[in-house]
Design brief:
The chain is of the alpha+beta class. It has a single domain (2-161), classed as NADH Oxidase (3-Layer(aba) Sandwich). It has helices spanning 2-6, 20-31, 50-57, 86-103, 120-129, 158-161, and strands at residues 42-47, 71-78, 107-112, 135-144. Strands 1-2-4-3 form a four-stranded antiparallel sheet, with helices on both faces. The chain binds flavin mononucleotide. Residues 8-9, 11, 62-63, 109-112, 150, 153 line the site of flavin mononucleotide.
């Protein structure tokens, strides 16, 4: 509960290299996520090369901070293996990755790539990383030692979002 409640999106990073063993632990957490029929359609591309991070940072305006991230993890979903469930399976893996990284003292931020609106962002990443056609690109995650302390943000209260017994029951 502590890791879940204290995790925040971190978009600025300390000028410090991330030990490969920590990245491996976070990826190991990701692969233990639940997935529909246990298909595990996820794969991960780990980027530390400055030029590649720079290209990924240009995918859209909300990915600009990636150029300052020591590590970028690109999350792929194999659409041939799991046509209908790959986005949510990969989302579960990403959340595991974020929480594990936070528990290890790292900061991360999820960057949207997959969208039902357009494949434009996916095609931009596909071009940079030469990702095969059977894979969809779900997200990118910036990772590093935190270089900021985000302002508190408001979370909805349980009584705004939980319905006991039926949707129309009084809270
Ligand atoms: C599906 C998804 C897509 C997101 N895309 C971006 C993004 O493109 N750029 C970004 O800076 N943050 C992105 N975020 C991070 C959210 O802005 C952040 O999780 C939210 O504001 C809540 O803040 P917190 O993570 O600190 O709790 C994304 C988060 C999710 C779950």
């Amino acid at each position: 509960m502590e890791a879940i409640k204290t995790r925040r999106s971190i978009r600025r990073y300390a000028d410090r290299e991330v030990e490969r063993a920590l990245v491996v632990q976070a990826l190991d957490a990701a692969r233990h996520a639940p997935s529909a029929s246990n298909i595990q359609p996820w794969e991960f591309v780990v980027i530390t090369d400055t030029g590649t991070k720079e290209k990924l940072s240009r995918v859209h305006k909300h990915s600009a901070f990636l150029k300052g991230a020591p590590v970028v993890v690109v999350v792929l979903g194999n659409e041939r293996l799991s046509e209908h469930h790959f986005p949510v399976d990969c989302a579960a893996a990403i959340e595991n990755l974020l929480l594990a990284a936070h528990g290890l003292g790292l900061g991360c931020c999820w960057v949207a790539v997959y969208s039902t609106r357009s494949t434009e962002r996916e095609e931009a990443v596909r071009g940079v990383l030469e990702v095969g056609e059977e894979y969809r690109i779900v997200a990118m995650v910036g990772m590093g030692y935190p270089g900021e302390v985000p302002k508190p943000r408001k979370m909805k209260e349980l009584d705004e979002i939980v319905h006991w017994g039926s949707f129309r029951s009084p809270n």
